[in-house]
Amino acid sequence: MLSNTQYDAIMRIYQDRQAKSQRELDERRRSVYEQIPRLPEIDQEIASASVRKALFLLGDAGGRDVDIDQTIRDLAHERQVLLQIHGFRADALEPRYVCPICRDTGYVGDEKCSCFRQMEIDLLYSRSNMADSLKEESFSGFSLDYYSPDRIQSGSGRSERAEASSALQAAQTFVDEFDARLASGEPENLCFYGDVGVGKTYLSRCIGGALLKKGRSVLYLSAHDLFEQLGTATFSSSGEQKEFRDYIFTSELLIIDDLGTELTNSFVVSSLFMIVNERLMQKKSTVISTNLSLEKFRDIFTERTFSRIMGSYRLIHLSGRDIRIQKKIHGGK
Hints:
By secondary structure, this protein is an alpha/beta fold. It has helices at 4-35, 38-57, 68-85, 114-128, 160-176, 178-184, 200-213, 223-234, 239-250, 266-281, 294-312, 323-329; strands spanning 107-108, 111-112, 190-194, 218-222, 253-259, 285-290, 314-318.
């Protein structure tokens, strides 16, 4: 979903396209008419025939019954023949649109044109901080082969692979149900936690990328960048910084990656609670990934924040050996 500012930015693109198309048409028409003087005469004859027909239908004495459709067809055919003889394209006297479907209006009837939706997605990509990774990360690239089916986690009683399989399914279900949950006012929130390098960030980014492709507003930030930029925005009078701060709370999905790796202080602790609490109140989804255990998370970010997450987030544990190290050992595979 676009903000008003983003929507206005896209509509300005269409306005610029229409203005450019009209300028080019005017220049092209002048050039063509100079070389084919008969063409403006044809335009005048079509207009005159239309007026005579209209006057006739209104009962005006100056009107005359004419087969207006046949007259227009004959004159249009003459125009096309003249254009062809002089080496011009058949559409030389027609506007040339970037998108012929919507004629550069952005809409087909009351529905957004496919070109509008593509610009919408492109704009959301650029705002999400995820554009560089989308080409490489997708659910299909999440391999369970990196997770042992034999090593059992004492906390869950499940194998690493079983945990990973459940995490993948939960992430895909989150995406599949996102629109319906958003419409019903019952958004889901996820918290991936567990060992370093076991796919928490990857799944978070897969979720973000999949929702961006569906035209949803997503903001992805590492915890370090989130609190650094939030601090800057909080004490800045810049309109751009204020807009960014608002986007933290209003984006349909906020992804906070690597929570717990930033320098933790009172500002960070209070800000996390504010973000978690405010987004819950506004019924916006949040996905958090952290290497912290639940006990350490509670100790660092206080019982108050921990309680909000425990009560409103689906907790998803991942375990295993660092996938990046496994890839290096196996030659990047």
